Amino acid sequence: MQMETGVKCEIKNHVAVLTLANPSELNAITIEMREEFLKLLDELEQSDEVKAVVLKGSEGNFCSGSSVKGMGKRTVLETFDHMDVFSSVIMKIHHMKKIVISMVEGYAVGAGFSLALAADIVYAAEDAKFGLAFNKLGLIPDCGLNYFLPQLVGPYKAKEWILSGSMIKAQEAKENGVVNEIFPTEQLLAEVMEKAERFAAGPYYTNMMTKDLINQSSQRTLKETLEAERFAQTILQQTEDHKEGVNAFRNKEKPVFTGK
């Protein structure tokens, strides 16, 4: 039976798993899915239960970007609005207080590649492929790919991949810093969930501030970074999680963080 199109959400052990379900289009995101996706991200942002989020696709593929059904037919205003919602999804993921992991198997192409890179960490299956076919359609990369990719691989490699419409396999992606780790396809979900649960069990505010400090680092001077670190450390030293960490270290025990 074919999975109903949409964005599915499951929560277990403080980890939310968001599954893009449009397998007939390699999980391309429709207008309805974009709005549903953004709504779920907003809800997870506010959830006290959820500490980490995993993004994945259904039936062996991650995401092929936006659905092509309306491509070439939209007016200027329709295109403007169409991109605005997807851009909001990218911004929400990148600036989300929770740790976000992209779990990539099969194809992550077009804006699906951008979506994967918006996360904090990318884990991939051995069969994962990252595609840049924009110029073959007479278009530029969008949804933040021109921001994320050069920071990871450098401007020269980014231009080469984009201008040649490359399809990058998992190993090449890892060698260029796009992927954190590669797992056998049949082990991918279990491995990613184990890592996500480990992040979720960590000190919540420490994880949140670490994410923000690193995300902002390329736009800050050293002096600004040092000041931001001083501010964050002063706050974190007042948390219950810091006290728990210190006590556990002294007693040679494993800390149990509560996110307070």
Automatic annotation (TrEMBL):
<dbReference type="InterPro" id="IPR014748">
    <property type="entry name" value="Enoyl-CoA_hydra_C"/>
</dbReference>
<protein>
    <recommendedName>
        <fullName>Enoyl-CoA hydratase/isomerase family protein</fullName>
    </recommendedName>
</protein>
<dbReference type="InterPro" id="IPR001753">
    <property type="entry name" value="Enoyl-CoA_hydra/iso"/>
</dbReference>
<dbReference type="InterPro" id="IPR029045">
    <property type="entry name" value="ClpP/crotonase-like_dom_sf"/>
</dbReference>
<dbReference type="Pfam" id="PF00378">
    <property type="entry name" value="ECH_1"/>
</dbReference>
<dbReference type="InterPro" id="IPR018376">
    <property type="entry name" value="Enoyl-CoA_hyd/isom_CS"/>
</dbReference>
<comment type="similarity">
    <text>Belongs to the enoyl-CoA hydratase/isomerase family.</text>
</comment>
<dbReference type="GO" id="GO:0003824">
    <property type="term" value="F:catalytic activity"/>
</dbReference>
